[in-house]
Amino acid sequence: NISYRYQTPGTIVFTWDPPAPTERNGVIVKYDVQFKKDVSLNNDYIYTGNSTLPKIVFNGLDENMRYIFKVRAITKKGPGPYSQDLVLTTQQDLVRAPINLRGMATSESSIEIWWEPVPSHSKLIGYKVFYSMAPTPDMEQWQQLMVA
């Protein structure tokens, strides 16, 4: 059971359920993940690697592009079968992020930020500001602030 959700139009979080205990060949030590663009004549994977958690984040993806994701569990005895391919199309960015983001420390514990809006065909009602004290690609771990 694989699921995904968009954090931004170019960032996707994949999560999956481990295989049922009766279908495992021992204790799972990691997951083998493969992710690629679904482009004919190109079988190169954007990402081939491992995850110790049943979750992975991909960012910097192209808009309105088909991608293929698959995963398999690995035990000390070796890998299991891959999941079925999950084919998805990334969203088209309807509202772009602001440009020329700048910041300045106003004290030891605060910062002031400002930016220029990007022209949009729709009416903006506010901004969601994400921030983190440490770099991490998983925005679920970031703090959020709504600015009207």
From TrEMBL:
Gene3D superfamilies: Immunoglobulins (2.60.40.10). InterPro entries: FN3_dom, FN3_sf, Ig-like_fold. Pfam families: fn3. SUPFAM superfamilies: Fibronectin type III. Residues 1-93, 97-148 form the Fibronectin type-III domain. This is Tyrosine-protein phosphatase Lar-like. It comes from Hirondellea gigas.
